[in-house]
Specification:
Elements: H1 15-38, H2 45-57, H3 63-80, H4 84-105, H5 110-126
Helix pairs in contact: 2-3, 2-4, 2-5, 3-5
């Protein structure tokens, strides 16, 4: 029986195919590494409050998420020397942003928001470590 001229008998081991395989592996690994580095990066209290509110809207605020948020809030208070007024202002901005986003999602449109941003927020907040 005659083989087709394009058929190969074994795996391709040329340098270009190995380079393609390596590039594909890096492309798939970068988002995973990027997410793990982003896990505890909250730039300010407003952002932390926003993500906490997302978990509340989505019904993802477990005890671990609430505890992590309180640890994070205390950490911001200590490291940035925030006054009560500044804390309230940032909490208010975070709540307003989350509420506006929830309203923009429309009826039922928040499901995808909860599945992506809500899950990510819950994972990030629940894994925030307690103070040392």
């Amino acid at each position: 029986m005659r083989k087709h001229r394009f058929a190969r008998s074994g795996p391709d081991r040329t340098p270009t195919s190995l380079l393609r395989a390596l590039s594909l592996g890096l492309l798939l690994a970068v988002p995973i590494v990027g997410f793990s580095q982003k896990l505890h990066k909250f730039n300010n209290l407003t952002e932390a409050v926003y993500f906490f509110e997302v978990t509340l809207y989505c019904g993802l605020a477990s005890d671990a998420v609430i505890r992590g948020y309180h640890y994070l809030e205390d950490d911001f208070r200590r490291t940035h020397h925030l006054t009560s007024k500044e804390m309230d202002e940032q909490r208010g901005r975070g709540w307003s942003l989350a509420h506006a986003e929830w309203q923009n999602r429309g009826l039922g449109g928040f499901r995808a928001w909860c599945a992506t941003e809500g899950r990510e927020a819950a994972n990030a907040l629940s894994s925030f470590p307690p103070p040392a």
